[in-house]
Amino acid sequence: MIDKAVFLLRQVRVSRQEAVHALAVYFPGTAFEDRLRCVHEAWDIVRPGGAPAESVRSEVSDARYFAAAHERHAFND
Known about the structure:
Layout: H1 2-12, H2 16-26, H3 32-46, H4 63-72
Helix pairs in contact: 1-2, 1-3, 2-3
């Protein structure tokens, strides 16, 4: 579905909104949120160099959470 969205944005040159609606024709029954996510990902492919996504600090970067996850998933050294 992302490939089709890239095609619509790059080759057909439709707007992002039109691409979301066009994906409903190509992939009937898909949720609006899924089509919207695919168009956003396709837009990132078609228009590189935009503002970088905000990075969020991972919980595993904190030693307390990392140790808990390590134990929870039974990783033994």
